[in-house]
Amino acid sequence: MNRQEVPQVSYWLQTAPPGDPFPELVEDLSVDVAVVGAGIAGLSTAWELCRRGRSVAVLEAGRIAAGVTGHTTAKLTALHTLVYDRLRRTRGPEGAQQYARSQSDAIRCAAGIVEELGIDCEWEETAAYTYAEDSARVEELRAEVDAARAAGLPAEFVTETELPFAVAGAIRLPGQAQFHPRKYLLALADGIRRRGGLIHEGTRIVGLTEGEPSVVTTETGVKVTADAVVVATHYPVFDRALLFTRLSPRRELVVAAPVPAETAPRGMYITPEQNTRSLRSAPYAHGQRLLIVTGEHFTPGTGGDVEERFRRLSEWAEGHFGGLTFTHRWATQDNDPTDSVPLVGPLHPASRHVYVATGFGGWGLSGGIMAGQLLSTLVTGGKSPWSDLYDPRRVASVVREGTEFLKHQAQVARHFVGDRLPSPSGPAVTDIAPGDGAVVHVNGQRSAVHRDDDGELHAVSARCTHLGCLVAFNRAERAWECPCHGSRFDPQGRVLQGPALRPLEQRDL
Ligand code: FES
Q1: Dist. CA 335 → ligand 1 center (Å)
Q2: pTM value?
Q3: Is the CB of 254 inside a 6 Å radius of any atom of ligand 1?
Q4: Which residues, other chains included, contact 198 with Cβ-Cβ below 8 Å and sequence gap of 6+?
Q5: Is 482 a pocket residue for ligand 1 (Cβ < 6 Å)?
Q6: At a CB cut-off of 8 Å and minimum separation 6, what does 193 contact?
Q7: Residue 248, Cβ neighbours under 10 Å: how many?
Q8: Is residue 487 in contact with ligand 1, taking CB distance under 6 Å?
Q9: Atom from ligand 1 closest to the CA of residue 468
Q10: CB of residue 467 inside a 6 A radius of ligand 1
C-alpha cells in the first residue's frame, strides 16, 4: 500500500454532509460563556449550557468536528483497555467507581441526545472488548475484569468472540455504543444554533485575559467578553498551569477496508498487544461494512518511517481478516495524561472562571461528552460527584504516577536541550527527495525544508512556535511535527494542530 493507492482521508469527514459553514467572527461580542474549540468536548459543553439557558459562543479555528473528533475511531465505551485495575491502585476503589459511572453516564447522555434531536448518526448499541491473543496476558485481563466489576461495570471474562481469529481471553462489556461522530456533531451544532447559541468557524483565538468578565481575542483582534471561558482545544492553547508537563501527545494510524456485512465484527475491540490494535466496523455501501483498524502509535515527530507503520498496520489487518482492499487511511492524535485520568475543570489553581478539558487518552468521545456535563455543571455553579476525580489541579495522583511523569519530562527535556545545541552535520537541501522534508542548516539557521512532488522547495523555520523545540517531517502525512507537545504544521508552516498558535516563520533559501 502506498500514499497514491489509498486515499488519505477520514471516512467520517468524507461521508458526512458538508454542512453550511458557520461565519467567521468579525465583530466584538459579549456572552455568558465563550467555548474555545468545536470538537466533541466543546460542542457538548455548549449544548449543555444552552439547555441551561446560558448565552454561548463557540469559537473554532477551523471547521467544527473536523479535527481530532473527525479522525477518531468513534467508540463510546467505559471499557478503556485496562484502566480500572490501575485506577483502583492510584485513585482507590471510589475513584475507579466514579470513573466508571461518569463514563457510563456520558454514553447514556449521548443516547438521550440522539433520541431527543432525532439524529441519524448510525448509532449502534454493542459490546466493547479488551482482548489478548497471548495467553501470558490472561491474568492481566482477569484482574481488569475484577476491577471493572468492583467499579460497578457488568464486565465478564470470555474466551470466545466473533473475531475470525482465536483469542486467549477477552473482557466483554455490554451496552456500549458506536456511531458516526461527525454526523452526530453536525446535528448537535444545529441544535445549539436553534437554541440561540453562536458558532463561529475560521475564528482562531490567540489571547486570553482572565477576570470578571474574561476576554478572549481572535488573531484578527476581535474580542469576546464572557463571564466564563472553556478551553476545549484538545491540547490546551492556554496553559497557565503547565499542564503540558502532564500530557504526552500520541499519534495513531487508521486503515479501513470494506468487508461483507456477515463477517464484519459488530463489537468494538482493542488489545494492548502489538503496539495496540483497535477494531470496529461501520455501516458501508452495497451490503458491506467498513472494517476500521487503528494502531502503530508514536510520539509526533518521532515516528520514523510512518509509511512503513501504515504498511505494518495494513498487513496485520490483512493477516487477521484476509481479502482486504483498503479504501481509506488517516491518523488521529491523542494526549495521554500521566495518571490515566483526563484533566477537566478549572484551568489553574487561581482560576475562577476559566476551565479546561483535555487529556482524554484514546477515549475522547465518552470523555468529551463527560466533560460537557461536568463543565456545564461547574460553570453554572453546581456540584458534580466527579469534579475531584478529574480536577486538573490534583497533584496526589500525579505524584503517585511519578515514573510516567518523569519519563515524559525526560523525553521533553531531551528535546528542549538537544534541539538548542549546535548540530555537527545534517542533510543538505539537495539531499531532499520529492515529497520529503528535512531540517537543514541555511545561513546559520535551522530551516524546515520540504520539496513538493513538482520539485519546488518550501522553507520555514524549524523552531516550533509553541516553546521552540525542533520539528521533524512526517512524509506519509506531509506535515511538520513537534515531538515536545505534538503541534503540527503543514509544509507551508500553517498550524494544523496546537498547542502552537502561530505558523512557522517563512524562510528564504
Ligand atoms: Fe511545544 Fe512544540 S508543541 S514546543
Answers
A1: 13
A2: 0.90
A3: no
A4: 29, 31, 55, 56, 57, 58
A5: yes
A6: 22, 199
A7: 23
A8: yes
A9: 4
A10: yes
- Crossing angle, helix 364-379 and helix 92-117, to 10 degrees? 90
Q: Is the peptide bond before 265 cis (omega within 30 degrees of 0)?
A: no
Dist. CA 211 → ligand 1 center (Å):
27
Looking at residue 502, its amino acid is R
Task: Answer yes or no: are the C-beta atoms of 333 and 250 closer than 8 Å.
Answer: yes
Using one digit for the tens of pLDDT, what is the confidence trace for 270-289?
A: 999 877 899 999 999 888 99
If you classify domain 429-497 with CATH, what class do you get? mainly beta
Where do the structural domains in the chain lie, given as residue ranges? 3-72+182-245+340-396, 429-497
CA–centroid distance, 338 to ligand 1, in Å, is 18
Distance between Cα 482 and ligand 1 center (Å)? 6
215 C-beta closer than 6 A to ligand 1 = no
Residue 337 identity:
P
The minimum-distance atom of ligand 1 relative to the CA of 467 is: 4
Question: What is the DSSP annotation of 145-193?
Answer: HHHHHHTT---EEES--SSSS--SEEEEEEEEEE--HHHHHHHHHHHHH
pLDDT digit string, tens, across residues 168-221: 999 999 999 999 999 999 999 999 999 999 999 999 999 999 999 999 999 999
Give the length of the chain.
509
Superfamily of domain 3-72+182-245+340-396: FAD/NAD(P)-binding domain (3.50.50.60)
Looking at the chain, the whole-number percentage of residues with pLDDT higher than 90 is 73
Closest CA to 205 of 495, 507, 407: 495
